[in-house]
Design brief:
Residues about 1-30 have low confidence and may be disordered. The chain has one helix spanning about 35-50, and strands spanning about 5, 60-65, 70-80, 80-90, 95-100, 105, 110-120, 125-130, 135-145, 145-155, 160-165, 175-180, 185-190, 195-200, 205-210, 215-220, 225-230, 235-245, 260-270, 275-280, 295-300, 305-310, 320-325. The protein has 1 helix and 23 strands. The protein starts with a strand and ends in a 5-residue tail after the last strand. The protein is about 5% helix and about 50% strand. It is globular. Strand 7 (about 110-120) and strand 8 form a beta hairpin. It has a 5-stranded antiparallel sheet, with no helix packed on it. The protein is mainly beta.
Length: about 325
């Protein structure tokens, strides 16, 4: 059962987009319903991101220190009035088995799934508890203009997940359906009204209707990074960011001292391909690559603004929402 703890008064977000529940992804999808200004902004974001490359100059322009226990943050989303941050609180860590048991490579562990609701100054206003039983690990977040979408999974691959929607105005969670695998990220395709999720390590994608019927599944054609947090950016495309933990050179510690490679990717959900990807090597206070977990990107013209929160509560200066900005020149 879901529990909701309220901390202080909350002014509800009011943005609403009407979702279309299409019957499948077609080669030529129908125009997206809803706010035309939002659609235009999301299209501009996708176009501007395609101009990002290794030489793009990202400047840190802000740090927002969160002054409450944030545990291990996973995803972030912004509405008109609020910031949403998903996080997993580990009560009992998972333990790897010497050999797989019953299809699992590790114990289930124990934990609590949080969806924190903050004002724009980072003050906690509500702590929404999500999950059931062994499913306590929330993943990345997507906001469709009305609902926050989040998958809450077991903290192990090849397991199970619950897909939730959370009304951004009332903050009421709704269990949509369960799926028999670990899904660590999810987006709402506003052209089709379908949900797209990515599994452990983002090695596979799946598409469902809102009743949980699986419509398609495909292997991730890109092996650059594991996607941690994704957002929908119009025209059946998603923008994702994440990290790959790679072994160091033997002189630097080898496999015992991994290197975090960060990056971002624009994905075509209809054609199931990667349109553009780029590394991102900026570092947090605790020394994590900035795209390690929560990530959101916006664009105003050719100016991009990125919000990330790579550090856990007990690391460095605690969880900080870092802001980076860059100006690009989109191709004509």
């Amino acid at each position: 059962m879901n529990r909701i703890r309220t901390r202080g008064a909350l002014t509800a977000a009011a943005a609403v987009i009407v979702l279309a529940a299409g019957s499948g992804i077609a080669a030529q999808a129908a125009p997206e319903p809803g706010d035309s200004d939002r659609h235009a902004a999301d299209t501009a974001l996708a176009d501007s991101f395609k101009a990002v490359d290794r030489s793009t100059n990202w400047e840190m322009t802000g740090k927002l220190k969160l002054g409450f226990p944030t545990f291990h943050p996973q995803g972030i989303a912004y509405t008109e009035d609020h910031i949403f941050l998903s996080s997993v609180e580990i009560v009992e860590p998972t333990v790897k088995y010497p050999a797989p048991r019953d299809g699992y490579d590790r114990t289930a562990g124990k934990g609590v799934g949080h969806l924190f609701v903050m004002d724009k100054a980072g003050n906690l206003q509500k702590d929404i508890i999500l999950g059931e039983g062994d499913m306590y690990h929330p993943g990345g977040l997507d906001f469709d203009g009305k609902n926050i979408w989040v998958s809450v999974a077991q903290y192990r691959p090849n397991s199970s997940s619950i897909i939730y929607s959370v009304d951004a105005a009332t903050l009421e969670p709704q269990k949509q359906f369960e799926v028999p695998d670990h899904f660590g990220g999810i987006v709402m395709d506003r052209r089709t009204g379908h949900l797209i999720g990515n599994t452990w390590g983002s090695r596979r994608f799946a598409e469902w209707n809102l009743n949980g019927k699986q419509l398609s599944t495909w292997q991730n054609p890109n092996h650059f990074i594991d996607y941690q947090d994704c957002q929908y950016v119009a025209n059946s495309q998603a923008l994702c960011a994440g990290v790959a933990n790679l072994p160091q050179a033997p002189a630097a510690g080898g496999t015992a001292a991994t290197y975090e490679l960060g990056g971002m990717a624009l994905i075509d959900l209809a054609r199931k391909t990667t349109l553009h990807d780029v590394p991102f090597q900026k570092w947090s206070t605790a020394g994590h690559v900035a795209t390690r977990n929560p990530f959101k990107l916006t664009a105003e013209g050719n100016h991009l603004t990125m919000h990330v929160a790579p550090d856990d509560a007990e690391e460095g200066n605690g969880t900080e929402i870092l802001t980076y900005e860059a100006t690009v020149t989109p191709a004509k």
